Amino acid sequence: MILVTGATGTLGGPVVQRLREAGADVHGLSRREREPEPGLTWHKGDLWTGDGVDAAVEGAETIVHCASDPLHPKRDLPAARRLVEAARRQGAPHLVYISIVGVDRIPYGYYRTKHAVERLVEDSGLPYTILRATQFHTLPNAVFDILTKVPGVVAVPRGLRDQPIDAAEVAARLADLALAAGPARRVADMGGPEVLTVEEMLRDYLAARGLRRPVRVPLPLPGKAGRGFRDGHHLTPDHAVGKRTWRQFLEEAHGPR
Ligand SMILES: NC(=O)c1ccc[n+]([C@@H]2O[C@H](COP(=O)([O-])OP(=O)(O)OC[C@H]3O[C@@H](n4cnc5c(N)ncnc54)[C@H](OP(=O)(O)O)[C@@H]3O)[C@@H](O)[C@H]2O)c1
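^ inputs. structure came back:
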């Protein structure tokens, strides 16, 4: 039995799908009540309050922890602690955790929390596997949706690059790690197929949506975190294993140009 937290999310959804396709007995955790589906049992629970967590973890041989609350990033550490404590009470299931490339090198609030959760998992005494990935295509796409809501010039930070990856490809790797015979500790990072400037990504996005907008790159990201991103610590060009490109994603998300 494999429990997936964050099973309704961008990553967790395709993780659940892959595990079901592999014939696993999949359980999903969500804060909302959901109807059961063939091969998928839902548990209503909240990692922040702790409600329903013990019941969800009961009987799990593996837990894939994809739940996260970026709007309340400080909640992720106590939420992960609750999950680890519940897992310990149930024996010693294999805990598979998804993290982000560069969380240990970029002093950005959400990344600090992700790094703290990584350390919690490593020190939990549970068998564990941690995979770090770069940004999913859906993230810059959502940012560009917001930036283009108001008419006029679209500005993005100067010198910022990204290596976006397909969430389904990360989900496939995570599912394989969950189905593997045993834990693998920290595995090799996973990055998208190409490193692009955000200006290039924005221009591709505008073209995909047929929008004509002036683009400006006025200033670099400020501060220490900005420097970490400018220096590319969130990139992993040596692990550019993703296949689906940003342009392929855009074409499928917004239709052919
Ligand atoms: N997005 C990226 O670019 C990216 C890149 C690398 C790694 N990651 C990591 O991948 C993971 C998943 O990201 P995502 O983009 O798929 O997130 P997402 O789409 O925002 O989904 C978040 C999930 O977390 C669940 N959740 C939030 N708070 C919860 C709580 N208190 N208790 C239980 N469940 C809770 C939500 O479930 P309900 O709403 O159903 O309760 C939802 O399924 C995160 O750890 C993230 O850091 C993301």
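The pocket of NAP is lined by residues 5-12, 29-32, 46-48, 66-69, 79, 98, 100, 114, 133, 135-136, 139 (CB under 6 Å). The domain at 2-197+206-254 is CATH 3.40.50.720 (Rossmann fold).
thumbs up if we can close this ticket
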